[in-house]
């Protein structure tokens, strides 16, 4: 990170990162730590996430620069009132990951978590920046085989919200809709809060990734259902068949955009579509064969096409260029480099 850039908060400030044991959130924590900030990392059960104080994080834990705090479930009123004390910025990545049919068990607590952390920020004068992690699926269904159109500031995937809240009995169609629907509902809650509370003492930005690839920091990130590269590496056709094409960004780039959204004085009330590269399985399989020539992979799919969708990522790429600690960075980490980061992990059993 260029030292000449003026930051919204000084190094040494405390950053609250919710859902810190997640793939993206753990990289957000690490990037703040590398830049001289302190991280209060919220998890449901610290005994299940000791790796956030070990390995790569050990040097920071030894100086007290990162601490783990337990918080109640998202839907509990006042869940973050204690954790937010004294922090300068909040990065809210936590959401309900359970794939269950009842939307009341996914959408309702996710929205309640947004309400809880924003209300906590209202009561904590030290907070200057709040970042919410949304999803590309909040703006577009990313449907295969149709023209999804151009994504703008006011684009919303309302269809998935309607599908999730369709009347019971609740079945698997609800279960698959609930996670993206929760992102739609939660992000809308963020912006309605901003509109209804004038003169906030903190700035709010939203970062919206699509699929994530890259280096896992924990074994759980390799085995997670959203590790797309690992599914291709292992030939998990049950997952691959359901999603022949998608959009992928390296987790380090997306984490950096979160950091920049906190620190950059020019980024205010931004909705940052941070998707990365459009791709499909045949391109990913081709890269895997090149990187691992001695390994057999599943056959190519017939007649694959990229998703038809257009999103303006200019602001996100500009933040990468401005805040990267790599001189001359001009664009997203390449898909090949990101895939290499995924499969070179010591956590992947080859």
Automatic annotation (TrEMBL):
Q: Does this entry carry the keyword Transport?
A: no
> Which GO molecular function entries does the Swiss-Prot or TrEMBL record give?
oxidoreductase activity, acting on the CH-OH group of donors, NAD or NADP as acceptor
Which keywords appear in this protein's UniProt record, sorted alphabetically?
A: Oxidoreductase
Q: Which Gene Ontology BP terms does the record give?
A: steroid biosynthetic process
The 3-beta hydroxysteroid dehydrogenase/isomerase domain extends over 16-149
What's a Pfam family this protein contains? 3Beta_HSD
- Do you know which InterPro entries this protein is assigned to? 3Beta_OHSteriod_DH/Estase (IPR002225), NAD(P)-bd_dom_sf (IPR036291), NAD(P)_dehydrat-like (IPR050425)
Q: Does the keyword Chaperone apply?
A: no
Query: What is stated as this protein's family in its record?
Result: Belongs to the NAD(P)-dependent epimerase/dehydratase family. Dihydroflavonol-4-reductase subfamily.
* Protein name in the entry: Aldehyde reductase 2
């Amino acid at each position: 990170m260029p030292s000449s850039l003026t930051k919204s908060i000084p190094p040494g400030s405390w950053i609250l990162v919710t859902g810190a044991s997640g793939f993206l959130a753990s990289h957000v924590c690490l990037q703040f730590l590398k830049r001289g900030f302190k991280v209060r990392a919220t998890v449901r059960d610290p005994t299940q996430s000791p790796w956030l104080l070990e390995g790569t994080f050990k040097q920071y834990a030894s100086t007290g620069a990162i601490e783990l705090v337990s918080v109640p479930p998202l839907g509990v009123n006042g869940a973050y009132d204690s954790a937010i004390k004294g922090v300068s910025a909040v990065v809210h990545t936590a959401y309900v990951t359970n794939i269950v049919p009842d939307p009341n068990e996914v959408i309702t607590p996710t929205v309640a978590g947004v309400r809880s952390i924003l209300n906590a920020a209202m009561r904590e004068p030290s907070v200057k920046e709040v970042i919410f992690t949304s999803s590309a699926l909040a703006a577009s269904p990313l449907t295969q085989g149709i023209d999804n159109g151009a994504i703008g500031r006011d684009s919303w995937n309302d269809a998935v919200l309607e599908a999730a809240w369709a009347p019971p009995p609740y079945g698997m169609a609800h279960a698959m809709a609930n996670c993206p629907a929760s992102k739609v509902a939660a992000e809308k809650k963020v912006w309605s809060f901003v509109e209804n509370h004038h003169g906030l003492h903190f700035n709010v930005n939203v970062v919206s990734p699509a699929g994530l690839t890259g280096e896992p920091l924990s074994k759980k990130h390799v085995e997670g259902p959203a590790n797309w590269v690992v599914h291709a590496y292992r030939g998990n056709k049950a997952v691959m068949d359901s999603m022949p094409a998608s959009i992928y960004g390296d987790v380090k780039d997306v984490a950096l955009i979160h950091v920049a959204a906190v620190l950059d004085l020019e980024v205010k009330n931004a909705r940052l579509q941070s998707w990365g590269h459009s791709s499909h399985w045949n391109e990913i399989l081709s890269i895997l064969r090149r990187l691992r020539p001695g390994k057999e992979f599943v056959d190519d799919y017939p007649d694959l096409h990229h998703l038809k969708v257009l999103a303006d990522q200019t602001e996100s790429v500009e933040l990468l260029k401005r805040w990267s600690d790599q001189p001359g960075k001009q664009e997203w980490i390449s898909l090949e480099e990101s895939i290499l980061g995924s499969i070179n992990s010591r956590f992947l059993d080859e």
